[in-house]
Amino acid sequence: MLSEEPTFPTLSAEKSCLNCGTEVTHVYCSNCGQKYETGEMSINSLFRNWSRKQRHHLEIFVLTTRHLITQPRTVVEAYWAGKRKTYYNPFNYFVLIGSIMAFSIIQFSNFDPDIANQITMERYEEMGIDVKNQSFSSSNASTNWVRKNMNIILMLLVPFYALSLRVLLRKRSHNLAELIIVVLYAIGLYTFLSIPMVFFMDYNDPFTNPVYYVSLVLMFAFLAWILGHTFKLPWWRGFFLAAGMYFLSFLTIMVIALVVGIIVGISAAIIGSMLN
Hints:
By secondary structure, this protein is mainly alpha-helical. Helices cover about 65% and strands about 5% of the residues.
């Protein structure tokens, strides 16, 4: 049976859109999409419009998260197919969750530079290295910056993950934009589900905390789940795809950092010799 064309509420008479001036016969303007309202302003109308929009966003967010857990392929393919209203925009989904994670880490993590510095010194002393006169303030400052800018770090990793998937799935026809959508949804879901771990993670000495390793296992599990379902792979191939994506991205970043370091070092040596 053929599906019926969608119907929209109509107005009793043609009106002008208050946003762009286009004549509208339906509740929503065909030019800009704004809902037609009388334009009368009141506290009640302000609160009603705000609450309606927030409820709408929350409902789509919950639907997107639930379907990413139960049927991730449906979410990804819907966005690939151009269904932009059914699920949360992958970029907005990723940024929103990354911001919540960064806020949670800043407000609720136990990171203390002095404690981290002391633990680092003890580790070196256990290895027989004398560090009594050494300071690790720069290292701790870097750790603190990463902690406060987790959403930026995650966003910078997305293209590397997508490029790694492009290499690992080179026999398939997916383009880079499609793979970026998959990565945004996958990392966004993992980040959202790992937010409660902030309260149990020891950021001063993470490598001795079991929660750190639990978070790594969950990361690969969720990535394997979404990648496996999206690309119709058995669970074990999904796991190897997730691991390959992660380690290939890490290797690429290390190579780039090494090349940049060499270029900067050579440039500094040339400039130094010219000045002398």
